[in-house]
Amino acid sequence: MSRVLGLDWGTRRIGVAISDEQRRLAVGLAVWPAEESAFSPHLKALLNEEEIGLIVVGLPLSLSGSEGPSAVSARRFADSVATLGVPVKLHDERFTSYSASSSLSKAGITQKKQRGKLDMAAAVLLLQSFLDELNSA
To answer: Strand, coil or helix: what is 7?
Structure first.
């Protein structure tokens, strides 16, 4: 079975997580700059190195579930990623950054040191949530 790639898009950084081959467990992989010229080579190389069958992009919805400007930008990002030929799905990412920050704080990592780690941790939470839903169906 192919792996699933999770991308937590932000205006400055993209958190990256990948599943195991059985699509049960998400692990952090990287943090990439959000500029397309910077992340695109990393993404293309990863797609060539790993057997990625699906890409999941976080969709930042409001508490009510509505879409705001960030969700519109995430959809644009997902459309751009989809041009690489791998199917892309959007997945609700509400609370992933908050939960990731909370977990890192509990582990003793200060807010200042969380910057890069937070994006990857949020990508892991996003992808794990998606995998859990996939495997419970």
So the answer is: strand
